[in-house]
Design a protein that fits this description.
Layout: H1 4-22, H2 29-36, H3 40-43, H4 47-64
Helix pairs in contact: 1-4
């Protein structure tokens, strides 16, 4: 089960990824780490989540077009 803190982080992560995609910026660990004010190495643990979120956002954009 996911803690409330981790759930809130995933929501923040989604927001940061969505903002970068909407602004046409590359979604990178360095960029996300700056947006979320944390080290890229800390985000590396969330690579699978980042990839899933990015894929979902890109699929969502395709449907809107």
């Amino acid at each position: 089960m996911m803690s409330e803190q981790e759930a809130n982080f995933i929501v923040d992560l989604y927001g940061a990824i969505k903002k970068r995609v909407d602004e046409g910026l590359n979604v990178t660990l360095v960029g996300l780490s700056k947006d979320l004010k944390m080290r890229p190495s800390e985000l590396a643990d969330y690579l699978i989540d980042i990839t899933r979120i990015l894929n979902a956002i890109e699929e969502e954009k395709k449907k809107v077009r």
